[in-house]
Design goal:
It is built from four helices and seven strands. By secondary structure, it is an alpha/beta fold. Strand 5, helix 4 and strand 6 form a beta-alpha-beta unit. It holds the Pfam family Rhodanese.
């Protein structure tokens, strides 16, 4: 059985994507549209977008695992998968679920796409994928 691989930084995730890992963004469709998305096309592989919780409402996505399989993530393949959310919290659950299904090694990206709020209560400027200047685009 595959073991949960743990946490990595956004920079480590980007380097892994450049080396062939798959990035799965588990934020909501609203976040993808309004906040932006990682742009992994320069690394040769577009990200996979699957909500961990649905919007609106925040209910768990009952078809999450099925959608992972439909996106081509194959149990037992041993291809690294890095999971991204807003701040690195939802993606932990997604990475662990993928691990339980034999997908991965599966990693959680610390600080996510936007990181925790800064002293002014804003996200995206102090930590996370965007703040580090990693490739992204408006959804």
């Amino acid at each position: 059985m595959t073991e949960y691989a743990g946490d990595i930084t956004p920079q480590q995730a980007w380097e892994m994507v450049e080396d062939g890992a798959i990035l799965v963004d588990v934020r909501t469709a609203a976040e993808w549209q309004w906040v932006g998305v990682p742009d992994t096309a320069p690394a040769g592989a577009p990200p996979v977008f699957i909500e961990w919780v649905t919007w609106p409402g925040g209910a768990p996505n009952a078809t999450f695992m099925q959608q992972l399989l439909e996106a081509g993530l194959t149990p037992g393949e041993k291809r690294p998968v890095v999971f991204l959310c807003r701040s690195g919290q939802r993606s932990i659950g997604a990475a662990k679920a993928a691990t339980e299904a034999g997908i991965g090694p599966a990693y959680n990206i610390l600080d996510g796409f936007e990181g925790a709020p800064d002293a002014s209560g804003h996200r995206g400027g102090a930590a996370g994928w965007k703040a580090l200047g990693l490739p992204w685009r408006q959804g």
